[in-house]
Amino acid sequence: MYTLPDLPYDYAALEPAMSGHIMELHHDKHHAAYVKGANDTVEQLARAREDGQLGGLMGLEKTLAFHLSGHVLHTVFWTNLSPDGGDKPVGELAELIDRDFGSFDAFKSQLTAATATTQGSGWGVLAWEPLGQRLIVSQVYDHQGNVGIGSAPLLVFDSWEHAYYLQYKNVKPDYIAKLWDLINWDDVSARLSAARVA
Hints:
Helix Hairpins
C-alpha cells in the first residue's frame, strides 16, 4: 500500500515563499487524497480481477495513473524544496544542463515557461530521458499526461492552483519565481545519479 511521506521540514520552513498554512493543506489534504485514491484503485483492480469483471478496466487504469502520478510527483516536489535551497546546481548536473539547454539561464527560462503555460492543472518537469541520455523539460497535464515514457522526474514544479492560489492569487509567475529560491540541488543531483544507473 502507498503511504504519505512525512515532509523533510516543518510546514512553515519555506516561508515566506510558501506559507505554512498552504503547505499543511497541500501535503495533508491534497497529497493524502492522491495516496488514498491510489490505494483505493489498487483494491478495486484486485476485486475486478478476482470477480472476472474487467469491463471497467479502462477507467480504473486511468484513475490509478492519475492518483499514483500525483503521489509520485508530490513526493519528488517535497524533497526538491529546502529552506536552504536556491542558487544554481554544480557538478555533473550543471554540466548536463549546459550541454542540453545551452546555459542555466536558458534552462531556467524554459522550465519557468513550461510551468507557467501549463493549461489548467499540471506541472513543469525537468526529467532524465534514458533513450537519448539527455535532460528534457516536459509539461505534465493533471499528473500523468504529455511526458516521455521512461523519463525520470528530477525536478518538478507544481502549478496546480492548490499549490499557490491562496497566497499568490492568480499571479502564478510570482509563485514560480519563488520556487527557484527553494530548490534543493543536492536532491536533484541525487535523482539524476539514480536515474542514470537505472
